[in-house]
Every structure is written in C-alpha cells, then in structure tokens.
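For the sake of transparency, this paper describes our internal protein records without simplification. The tokens are whole numbers drawn from a learned vocabulary of local backbone shapes. One such record is reproduced below, unchanged from the form in which we store it.

. . .
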Amino acid sequence: MAERKIGLTDLLIEMLIHWRVAVAVMLIGSIFMGGVSYARSYRSLQTQKEAAENAAEEVLKQEEEKLKETQIANINMVVAYEQIYREKSAYMEESVLMQMDAGDAPRSELTFLIKSDDLERTYNIEKVYEDDIVSGGMRNWVSEQLGNISSVALSELVSLERTSYGSEMGQDTVRLYVMHSDEKECKAIAQSIVEYVASRQEELQETLGEHEIILVSQSFSRIADSYVLDRQRSTVSDLLSLESTIANAKVNFTDDEEQYYNSMVNGGKAQENGDKNTAGAQSGGKQEEEAENTVAGSNAVPAISTKSVVVGAALAVFLYALIIFLMYLFNNKVRYTDDLKLLFGIPELGKIPADSGRKKVFQFIDRWILKLRNGKRRMFSTQEAIDLAAVDLKMISRKNGVHTVCCIGCDLTQQALFVCEQIQELLKPEGITVKILNNVLYNAETMDDLEAAEGAILVEKAKSTFYEEISREAELLQRQNIKVLGGIIVE
C-alpha cells in the first residue's frame, strides 16, 4: 500500500458534508452560552438587589434613630393612607360599577319559580338556591364561562332579592338582578346565570328531592340607580379625603421625617430635600441622580448577552471541526475519495455514490458540496455508476478470458450488497458468472469458494473497510493466482 496523504481540500469537504450537524452544534452552543449568560445576569441582579435592600435597611435604621416614636407613627400613618389611596384609585379605574352611568344603567332581571310537592320543603329549597346563586361557586362558574370578567367584579354586579311572594301550594320564587356598564355584557352574565341554575338543578335533585326550578321571567331595562350613584360618590369622596389628609400630613414633615419617609417608600435611595442652603441643594441633586440610577437598576431584568451567544456558537463549531479533524487524521478506513490505483495498484472500476433517497431540506447545498468533492469528475446517479462499473468489468473479463468473477469485500451489506447483486444481474446475460463472497478474510467457507474463481474485484464500503483489510485481500488473491480485475468503492 502506498503512503496515504492528508488533503486539506478533502478535510474541508468532509466538514462541509456534515453541515447540518454543524448548524445543530452551533445552535446548541449558542443556547448553552446564552443560558449561562442569563444565569450570570440573574445572579448579578439578585446580588445587586440584596445589596440595595441591605443598604436601604441600614439607611432606614440610621434615620429611624433620629426620630421620636410619635414621628415614626405619623409617617407610618401616611404610608398606610397612601396604600389605601392607591387601592381605592385602582378600584375606581377598574371596577365596572364605578364606570357605570348611574343615570342610565343596563339591568337584567331574572325570576325563577320553584315547584315541589311540599310547601315547607319548597321553602327550604328556595333558601338553598338563594344561597347557592350568591355563592362564590356561581361567580367562579360564570367567570370561567365568560372569560372576560372576574369573580370579584361579579360580586357587586349580581344582587339577590330574598322574597317569597305569591305562594300557592308548593310554589315559591327567587329573583335576582344583574347590572353592567355594557348592555351585551349584562345580558351575557344573566344568560350564564340561567345556565348555572339549570346545571345545579340536576346536582341538587339527589340531595333536596324531586323539584323543579323554572325561569318564568327574564327582562332587560335601563334604569337610574341611586345605589350605584351613592357608591360612586362615596368612593370619590373617600379619595379626596385621603388625598387631603396625606397632603396636610406631608406639609408638616420635618426634614428628618421627610428623609425617613423617602427612605421607606423608595428603598432608602431617595434623595433628601435637606437643608435649603446651596450645599444642601447640590447634595440633593447628586442624591437625586443616584436615586434614579438605583430605580433603573432595580427595574432591570436578566438579559442574554449577544456576545455570549456568538462566542458559544463559535466555540461549538470550532470543537466540532476539531473532532472532525481528529477523526479524519486518525481514520484508517477507506474513503470515498481514495484512489485504489494510487494506493494499491488496483484498477478502479468505479465509485458508487449513496442513493439520495428522500428529499432533504436545503438539498441544493448537498449537491453543491458533492460537486466540490468530485472536482472535475462528472457526477452520476447510483444506477448510472453501477451500469458503468458493470460494463467496465464485462470488457476486462472478456479481454482476460475470465468467465467466473468473485465480488469480495469485508462488509458486503446494505448498499455494497445491492451493488454486487446489480452487477451480478447485469453480467448474467453476458455469460459471466458473478459470485458474492462477503468477509473472505474472516470466513473459512467463503475463502474456500475462491478456489473456483478466475478473477475477482474488490468491493469496498467507504468508512467501513480498513486499508489493511484491502491489502490482505489483494495478497490473498495473489497467493491463489487469482487475477484482480479491479476495485469499486461504495459510499
């Protein structure tokens, strides 16, 4: 065997052939390093947050020591009032009841009739349904069905009139009202309650006995509701009162109280208004800038570093290229690009490319890489390459007067076996007998079959057959005076 040379072009093409794996490796590397950068960012922000909280607690403790208990209580009262003010403001903005036009409010009225065979039992059933309709279960059920209104909001939009008028033998009624700022939503809630009552009837039949609950009246109107108006006015009045109380309390803050208050509401990082002299104003400006930076830092979220993603992708593809290089360097198996004539002095009958099979994504890239690998040689399909190799073998066999040819190799399976079988079928009409002998070096029976051979061809599978095995096969044929007609490399 001649000395095998390592070609940089072959190495590059070997890497390019596995470009899909390279892309996957790059993605894995970028995701991994991106995750690492995110974790580092998160830990860094947590550390900064803990440091800021500790510093804030220390500042707050130092400022608290300057104040009397009555001053601290006064500041705590202001903070508590501010919290109540924020909650009421949010309620004012989000509550359907607060947004409703009290002078023209949409209202649905539902009246259910309960029937059973006993008056006392009917009364008890009525109470069960009244409790059930105003329960959290009903509100949760309606909220899930509609999906655009909360259970808490329903508690102030649905009201029950507990009454039992018009009682006859075994009959009672349940009446309830639904209000909403939007007419369609009002009707939708009412209809959902009707469906809820119907579903509950089936469940309560077992525990309450045989009975019926029938919707006897469902009406819609627009009314002027004094209750809603009073609620709205009361909420606005509470907000104004809280705002006035908070403002008056802050006006009377001393400098120390104001500094302590700012430390409480801003995490100890707010600027102190301080003395009213020039030095105090300059100090306040500097602290204000620090406060803004601290607030910005506290609002920061963990981020993924673009640099880390790029570095991760680069390191991953470098590692992959290194592995390919080492595998190429220490590979002692025949390659598809090897020349049997140069390495072993065996005429090369052909190279059989792998069957493309099903179409792959971006298959045009594969074709471009294969063109680079083949260089100036023309590309053939699998069947075309087999046909050409069979014709070449036929001509060589006739020139050498050979009528029995053996296809030998160390891995004649799958594609390699298919190639041998195809050659066998193509040469059969030409009067040339082709025998397929697999693992001739390691199988005594197969080796014994060589005795009847007049000539042989080596069919070697790329990335499977060792160079040493090809040399031993050639030596075996030479010892048995069997002419080596040529060789075929199967991808």
Residues 164-170, 268-292 have pLDDT under 50 and may be disordered. The beta strands are 105-115, 158-161, 171-179, 212-223, 348-352, 404-409, 433-438, 455-461, 483-490. The chain has three domains: 1-99+225-331, 105-223, 340-490. The first strand starts at residue 105 and ends at 115.
